[in-house]
Automatic annotation (TrEMBL):
Protein known as: YcjX-like protein
InterPro entries recorded: YcjX-like
Species for this entry: Cognatiyoonia sediminum
């Protein structure tokens, strides 16, 4: 109740002071591991500062200049834009490190208004506050509505079919939840469970919560991360089960809720980056897990239009949500419509939930940094549309054809929902490309695919 009152007070304060200050757009950027959050933010900032590659941002000519400013929250680490851009644009480019904690950056845009009275007013400043946070943490918001018994039941069921899950279940079979708490036993179980989550994520599974087991940060080794799922029995006082249940509730209270209160609940616009190609390559179960995870993620949002009275009495709402399938440069452009259609179908449950609440949503295929060129090669069955790039593993150039994505998304989602072990009539591949060497003109940001279209959806109406 106190959290709700404080959010209401903050909302009223923000609403009443907004007309007296420069407008601010808070853009949340999230996605699960390897979806490309860091590269997206770096490329977006670079292309807003040097706008030669942004033709689909319709009012881009209204932006007179863009510049970085100190972020408003001194307690959040700054997104290290300069270091990430340096890695991507050096003579020997490399991918920057992935998102491991929350960070923020403010980009200020000086915009010339348009319309009948535009000649009477000077340029105005719009602040774009970009908040970067791990998607694994976002999945934890679903834990707030679960008891320890409910979470344990789901986690143990998933472990049966996921990598290293059997090792945890075998160890658990020798444990009596009502035995007296022993910290060595507790740590051994939590370490085994964390190893299982890491293996599941590496195998392409998306919902691997609790997220801080994967990205613990300064909580590594703390009691709040020393618990694991157990069978649902009545736990006695001082038992292992009673302590695990208490630590689970402490995790929700001291880790998950502060993240929601301090950061997530203040977002206006949101982009969710999704490695759809990686999930397809991992198989039907990974695709179904991704579909379920994204529906759960959207359940954590508070979507809706940011009308004055809505914000005043109900708090901030997410106005726009973009679902972006990344790594579109791994496909020839003739397959981009199929990738977008699969993304829309894959996220249908989540998207419908957001649309129903009043938020504007969209799905598209993008590449924040283009790493390949397109070619058509001769094949025994005729011409084949491929992409060519530098392989990350050995630095060699290679032409790549990932397989033909179906025009009907249900050809993928049907087997996924049925729990099939593998695709019956297709073999989908993925390749890891290194960033290409760049020679940029002063007016150009890094090359991309539809980053300008994504920016138009997310912030175009404000410029």
């Amino acid at each position: 109740m106190a959290d709700g009152v404080m959010r209401g007070v903050e909302s009223v304060t923000d609403t009443l002071t907004a007309p007296l200050s420069d407008p601010v757009i808070r853009l949340g950027v999230t996605g699960l591991s390897r979806a490309g959050k860091t590269v997206f933010i770096t490329s977006l900032i670079a292309n807003l500062m040097n706008r030669g590659r942004m033709p689909q941002l319709r009012n881009v000519a209204n932006i007179q200049t863009a510049y970085l400013q100190p972020q408003p929250d001194d307690t959040i680490p700054r997104f290290d834009y300069e270091a990430h851009l340096s890695k991507l644009t050096s003579k020997t480019p490399s991918w920057p490190d992935g998102t491991r904690h929350i960070s923020e950056l403010r980009l200020s845009l000086k915009v010339q208004p348009t319309g009948l009275l535009s000649s009477l007013s000077g340029p105005r400043t719009i602040h774009l506050d970009i908040v970067d946070y791990p998607g694994e943490w976002l999945l934890d918001l679903g834990l707030l509505d679960q008891s320890f018994a409910e979470w344990s039941k789901t986690a143990l069921t998933r472990a049966k079919d996921r990598p290293e899950g059997e090792a945890y279940l075998t160890a658990l079979a020798d444990i009596e939840p009502n035995e007296k708490l022993d910290e060595a036993t507790a740590k051994a179980l939590s370490d085994l469970f964390a190893s299982h989550l890491h293996a599941a994520r590496a195998a392409g599974y998306s919902d691997c919560s609790p997220g801080r087991f994967l990205l613990p940060g300064d909580l590594a080794g703390s009691p709040v991360l020393t618990f694991a799922p157990l069978p649902d029995v009545k736990y006695g006082r001082g038992s292992l089960g009673r302590e695990f249940k208490r630590r689970f509730e402490s995790y929700k209270r001291n880790v998950v809720k502060p993240f929601f209160r301090d950061h997530f609940s203040k977002i206006d616009r949101q982009i969710v980056l999704v490695d759809v190609l990686g999930a397809i390559h991992a198989g039907p179960k990974a695709v179904e897990d991704l579909r379920s995870a994204m529906a759960d993620i959207l359940g954590a949002f508070r979507p809706g239009r940011n009308a004055f009275l809505t914000r005043l009495f109900q708090g901030r709402r997410v106005e726009k949500i973009l679902f972006a399938a990344t790594k579109a440069d791994h496909l020839h452009h003739v397959q981009h419509p199929q990738l977008t259609a699969i993304t829309e179908a894959l996220l249908r449950d989540a998207k419908d939930r957001a649309d129903f609440a009043g938020a504007q949503t969209a799905a598209m295929s993008i590449a924040s940094l283009r790493t390949t060129v397109e070619e058509t090669v001769d094949h025994r069955d005729g011409p084949l549309d491929v992409v060519r790039g530098q392989l990350l593993e050995n630095g060699k150039q290679a032409a790549f054809y990932p397989g033909a994505l179906p025009t009907d998304p249900q050809h993928l989602l049907g087997p996924a929902r049925e729990g099939q072990e593998a695709w019956l009539d297709a073999d989908y591949q993925v390749m890891r490309f290194a960033p290409a060497s760049l020679t940029l003109r002063p007016s150009d940001g890094p090359p991309h695919i539809r980053l300008d279209k994504a920016a138009e959806f997310l912030i175009g109406d404000r410029i």
